[in-house]
Amino acid sequence: MPTFNRRRFLQFAGTTLAAYGLSERQIISHGLRYGQALAQSTTRKLALLVGVNQYPSGNSRFTNLRGCTTDVELQRELLIHRFGFQASDILVLSDDAAQKPTRSNILAAFEEHLIHQAQPGDVVVFHFSGHGSQVLEPNSPDGDGLNSTFVPGDIQENGTDVDDIMGRTLFLLTSALSTDQVSVVLDSCYAGGGTRGNVRVRSGFDGNSYQASAAELAYQSQWLRTLGVDVPTLQNRRNIGVAKGVVIAAAQKDEEAVDVGFDGFYAGAFTYLLTQYLWQQTDSSQGTVVRITRDMKDLSGQIPFLDAPSEQAQSDIYFVPEKKQIPPAEAVVTQVDGDQATVWLGGIDHESITTFGRGAKFTPAGFESLGEVELLSRQGMRGVIKLPSAVPAGTLLQEFSRVVSPELQLRIGIDPSLGLYTSRIQQQLGAIPRVLGVPHQGGNVPYEKDVHYILSRMTADYRQRFIDDAVPDDAVPGIDRIGLLSQSIDEWIPGSFSQDAEEFATDAIARLTPKLQSLLAAHLIKSLLKANSARLKVDASIIGEVAEVAGEQVELIASAFTPRGESGEAQSGGTHQILLDQDFRFRVVNHEPEPLYISIVIFVTDGRMFVVLPRPQKGREQQIAESRLEGNGTELYAPSLSEKEKPLYGQERGRAEALIIASREPFVEGLAQLQTLATLQALGERSDSESAELSLRAVNTLLGEISSSRSAPLDNTAMTDELPQIQTADIAAFSISVEVV
Q: Cβ-count burial of 231 within 10 angstroms (0-12 exposed, 13-18 middle, 19+ buried)?
């Protein structure tokens, strides 16, 4: 592992944002102006939400899924509590609902609930989560002879004839709506299939071997007659684009959309990111897709897709007009029972969900005088809180503090390619504090718990996944080498694979222990600190190196800020890529009246962590002084503008995340210890046992510094009566994703 080079950094991944001409700050600031009214307007809002987990056991194309009914819940609670939909205007078809997601029920519900009720100017949302597929269509708009489909829960096969619901049918149905304000959300895909790592792909195999059933074609003919449209006219309209409104899809046509395991539940990676983002801030359809595309890289390689004319793409998400600001939220009260209430935790970032266990606290929006309410328990996305006084259902809850839970662990899946060594590997991983080995159990749920990485041999199948035009064969680790893969097996973790094909699994774990400790440290820091709920007013940006930095004549490369503490208008400048030979710095602005202490940490996908500020080489007093930033708009540059301070420099290819941390009290020792450990490991100056001891000490120090009370030791897994707290009023962390391309 190389030492930290002060002229080493990563290039900003601006391709998606730049395609729309938007900067990170513009997207967030723009989104904050689209807070929606809870009060029902004269416009009616109708939604049909379909989720299919269970498919007939005798079918040859599709396995069961896990997260589609959760997707429906995620969308339903969001529409009611953030967008003002009436519960009675939302119809749910799912395995858990009274109406099942059969073909006839889906088509009948679309006709009766949406087409027959929607009036001009009304808002319509159709959401489908389940398997997608393809069938033959000679004159398809894409010219590939295929039409994408979504698959109902009672799928029937008659040889190669299948009764999927075609995209062509969906086009006809949306054409029949009396309103143009239509949003179609599809969390399914048309490529791949089966299980991949710890995710399930929402597609069947060999879709291009099938054709639409006679019933499906007859249903389309019926709608052509009803609409008074002939086949050539329909074809021309489909070639132009969507029938009405916008279509937001979870993945590109040739990509895989996946079910992902989170902390105690499964959901679609796309739907979870979509709804969680909209709990924090509403936006245009275009801005929303741009934002979740950036965040998707942590969960899956899929890229969400927006199909809409420019005007509709820039309209408010779900076409709900701006009425008044409502506060962003992490949760909402859904049911009150005496002094307790059930809450829906839809606004919590996926990296932080584990920290919202027993003892986490919230502030009821509009009832701040009641003080904080405490989470008593959580099961998946639902929790129970204790109420000091009655609050009505529908009350939004904002995070006050999260907990440092013993359940906060780095979970490593053990791939079946490691054969008979599973038990030994599990024991060896379990000896590393806060690292848990999770055996592969096969079937529809590969791992009992959600996992962050997978320890595996590089099999021929895995290796083939990574080889494409951009990644040559000789760049991919060789067959039988042992290393770490992402949970969705979309990428291998750089630097984790040995060159020795004969390496034993136990030796591989000993070799990987320092990397696992680095990945654990990154996981803990991001889980505990990264939050949209932070209330401190702080801005940060990456700026290019030009002559008059102090005079504000700088090139803005990327920017971010705490959404709930944001002040002022968005800065202009768009989004730029950094050339490999371009110098740049961080700039942080403190809008609080009091001083704050700033830390900047860079996490690379291979597990390395670089502390930019405060510099680990300095003594404690110097580190505190260096990280202190006065308030009222005072700026800090890292590296500083001193002629002795060289700027950062883009050099290595790959993704990374820059985490900017602001706190009312300094915490420098834990970060300094972690950086020192990384440097010593890179130089080979510490044994594995010494590294483990130093890592344990460093992370314990860090947890103690950032929590409101001294953190329990990492090797103490017993639940205590009161877990350490991290309060959003005292600490804020937000990130800028970067990439060298």
A: exposed
